[in-house]
Every structure is written in structure tokens, then in C-alpha cells.
Amino acid sequence: xxxxLTSLQHPLVKHCVKLRVDPAYRSLHQTLxxxxxxxxxxxxxxxxxxxxxxxxxxxxLPIPGEKWEVTEAMVHxxxxxxxxxxxxxxxxxxxxxxxxxxxxxxxxDGVSDPGNMGVLLRTALALGWQQxxxxxxxxxxxxxxxxxxxxxxxxxxxxxKGSVDALHRWVKEEKVQALVADLRxxxxxxxxxxxxxxxxxxxxxxxxxEVIGHFCAPVAIPMxxxxxSLNVAVAGGILLYLLMETSSL
Length: 249
Prior knowledge:
Helix content: 25-40%
Radius of gyration: 20 Å
Strand content: 15-25%
CATH class of the largest domain: Alpha Beta
Strand order of the largest sheet: 7-6-5-9-8-10
Low-confidence stretches: none
Largest sheet: 6 strands, parallel
CATH architecture of the largest domain: 3-Layer(aba) Sandwich
Number of domains: 2
Order of helices and strands: HHEHEHEHEEHEHEHEEEH
């Protein structure tokens, strides 16, 4: 157990704040900042150090890594939140891996909102999609808002990133059924889903890149109501659910 820290200017406090706000700094150190007791407990195998207020002393004892007692003001500064549980942790960043031979892959093409990114990762994990491939133009998946929205999904999904060309080659070589969310597409109940499939979700405003349509069949959610489109996280959740089975829906 470390001595208590009392200065907001302590180097460790500054380090943690930079992990939260600076993508380049996160990449350099290959660590992230997580807030909240339950998420930290669930990711205990990734923990490097825990910073906690005295009220959390008993709760942090089973958690591995360095332990630093801090003030409430420090936790607020580090987390950037006005209301906290009094505990934050620095954890190791999950590594990106190559696309594998998994049945269900979600690709995100230019998804720019971190909240949408986090919700889609969480939904993909919940519905049994094993891998997420990030195409150019996506926001930083380790943005603080994405991390909070994903609720630990970053650490349980296989994460990959790369170009459209690399994705296309993988689809051809692995003989994967490739689908893209598109308002002009076929309703999911008319799609026969293959054993291995890819779903691409595009940018919130512009949809998927034109080149994606060269090798992905369009699929759309029927919307009988008076609304032109859905938020990408909502639409993605519906399609991930409807396309998760291996038989015709």
C-alpha cells in the first residue's frame, strides 16, 4: 500500500489525466484509464495501478497492481466526472489482432461518435459477434466516452483495424458473406445468412464508403414509420440481432 497523495499537481495525477484525454499519450504507454469499482473488478487482470479514496479501501484489497490513496478532488480531476465512486485504475490497453476465422465480424467504417462506438462494441459482444474491425475514419476506440459506453467490451472482443482493401481481401480469401447497412438494401428477413458473415456499419451522416458497396450486399431495416433513418448504434443493434443466426430469418 502506498502513502496517500495530497497534491493535484503530483506527476501520477497528471499522468492519469493525460491517459484520459490524450490518444497519443495512451498509445505511447499502452494503458488506459477506467473509472468505477465494478468495471475495475471485472478487468482486474489488466490493472496496473489503482487510485482510490479512503472510503474504497476495503473494496480495492483483492485488486492487483499498485495502490495509491488519493483525495476526492484528485479522483474528480483524473476521471473528468463530477460524480464518481472514488476509484479509478490504469489498465493495460488491449492489443489489436489480425482478422481471424470467426463466424461473425462487425466492421465500422468512419463511425465518428465515441458514444456510438462504445454502444456498438457492447452490443456486438452481447449478441455473440466475436470480432470488430475498425476502418479508417473511425474515432479513437479508447476515447473515454467510448470506454464508458462499452462497459468493458474492448477487453472481451477481438479488435482489429486496417484498410478497406485488406478487409476485401479477407472476405475473398475466407469466403465470408459480406453485408453492409444501406437504406436501399434488402430487409434482413429476406437474407439467407451464411455460417460466416461480415456486417459493415458506416458513418453517422454519410453511411459506408462507396467502395464498400463493391463487395458487400446492402441490407436495410424496414421502417414503416415517418422517419428517414436511425442512429447508427440503434440500427447496428437491430441488424446485429437479426443477422446473428445461421439460418434464414
